[in-house]
Every structure is written in C-alpha cells, then in structure tokens.
Amino acid sequence: MDEMKDDIGGQPVKMSDEDLLLLVRHHVRRRILVTVGSEGKINASILRQRLGISTGSLYYNLRQLTPLIAQDQKRVYYLTEEGKRIYRILTEQAQDLTSQRSEGVISRIGNAIFPIWLFAPLYESRVVAATLGFLSLFVLLFVLVAGRHSIFLLNISPVTRVSISDLATQMALTIVVSSAFLSAISLIMSGRIKSITAHLKQLKSSGLLNFAKEQLKFTASIIVAFLPLGLLPGIAMVERVLNLGFIGSGDILARDAVLVLSQTIAVIMLGAAVSYVKKMRWQAGLAAALAYFYLSHGLSLFLR
Q: How many CB atoms lie within 10 A of CB 241?
C-alpha cells in the first residue's frame, strides 16, 4: 500500500537505465542531453541556438527529459544524477562507434596500400617460398647485369662494367644485412622481446631447425619485396637495346625519379612482408621498413 501511495501522491518512480535510454531515443532529445552534459549548465536561449530548433520544440523535448534534466532557480538547465549516468553511457557508445569506424577505415587503407595478402601463399609453403625467392633473385640479378647496375641494400647505382663476382657479393651482403636488421628491428618494435637472453632461450626451446625454416621464408619474402628495385636497371637495359636515350643519356632527374619510385614500392612491400611474417600491425611493419630505408641511405653515404 505504501508503494501505491507513492504513485498516487505523484512521487517519481525510479526508472531503469533501459527506460531512461528510451527517453533519448529521439535524436533531438539525445542532442539536448549531450549538449547539456558537455556544457554542465546552460540556459534555454543558448541551448536553442546551439541546437538550431524552435522554442516550442525545445520546451516540449525538455519536458520529456524531466527525469534526466532539471532547472535551478536561475532557470539554468543541468543534468540530474540519472541524466549524468545516461550521458556517460551515450558518450561511451559514441566513442566506441567512432573507434570502430576509425579502425575500420585504417584497416581498409592498410589493406589497399600494403599488399600483405601477397605474402600469405609465399610464407605458408616452403616450396612456394623457395621457388618465388629463387625466381625473384634470378630476375633481379639478370636486370642488374643487363642494365649494368650495382646494388647495396636499397641503393641501385650505374656502373660502366659489371663484375659477376662483385655483384654476387653485393647481393649476398644485401640479403644477409636486410634479413638480420629487419628481424632485429621487428622484434624491438613488436615489444615481444624483453632481452637478448630471453630471445636466445626462446630460440633454443623452439629449435634451430624451425628457426632456420622461418628465417628462410622470411628471406624469400625480402627478396620478393626487392623486385621493384629492378625497375631502374630494367629500363636501362631496354633503352640500351632500343637506343632510346631516356636514362643512359645522363638525365639525372629522370633516373632519380625512377629510383625513388622503385624504392618507395620496395619499402611498402618490405613493410607488408615484415607485418605478415612477424605478425605485426601494418603500421609497425611500415616503421620497420622505414628504419631499414634510413639504414640503407646512411650506410650508402658512409661508404662513399
């Protein structure tokens, strides 16, 4: 009977969060609640201007929001305790939705720019990795010899005469340094290594044979990612055969433009390879590839 008296006497019945959320189901009421919550306190005229609605619509919706919004003696609106609770729920939902949309957009951009999918079949099969790695190495060496260029990491330079032994040494050094550096930098950036001792223990427990197999597939992925570096010597080979005079005529600007383009594509592919093989986010994989890019240019300047 006491509860009946409360209802008959006009005392407010406590509403659940579900019922209170129904009050802000309409977009105008939801905007009113969020605006009042973000401002703390606000009068009717400023609130109406912020929302861009009529006075009648404002007061009608404010009456609907009576359990959530109250008015003090100065006729300033503020959130009740229930209103603050619903406001927190709405803002958390908005943040989650924004985060999901942002992550979705970033993920789509990453998938479009970084060809991580390219390295899935390469890495899942040792036969495919060995075959594509060998073919990529053969193609790259062929265009370097035919186009009369040398290679060191990401740097491609024209030479007057190609020495097969020197080129083989340069390529072997490039592959070893690239594999070692990208493996080390990816471990550091991924945060999966606490110390060198812990990593050595991990290698010992997993077995050297398994480590060698994984490293072989990673090396094959790196060689495939190096394929764009054959663009400059490939063009030089074609123009030398056809006597086009595009790069061989001494047009440094054109040569540098082609080199920058090939290096950019190679860095993107290296980032994708590191991201897939080392199970990292594509942003971290790209950061590792950029670190390798700076290493390449730093060593090139140092060795000149």
A: 9
Query: CA triplet 34, 39, 44: central angle to 5 degrees?
Result: 85
Q: What is the pTM of this model?
A: 0.61
Q: How far is CA 275 from the centre of its chain?
A: 10
* Nearest in space to 222 (alpha carbons), one of 113, 133, 117: 133
**Alpha-carbon span 144 to 279, nearest angstrom:** 32
Which tokens in the block code for residue 156? 């491609």
Strand partners, 243: none
SS3 assignment for 136-197: HHHHHHHHHHHHCEEEECCEEEECCCCCHHHHHHHHHHHHHHHHHHHHHHHHHHHCCCCCHH
Domains and CATH numbers, the chain: 2-105 (1.10.10.10), 114-303 (no CATH)
The string of pLDDT tens digits covering residues 147-203 is 899 999 999 998 888 889 999 999 999 999 999 999 889 888 876 555 555 556 655
Give the pLDDT of residue 98: 45
**Which parts of the chain sit beneath pLDDT 50?**
1-13, 97-100, 102-103
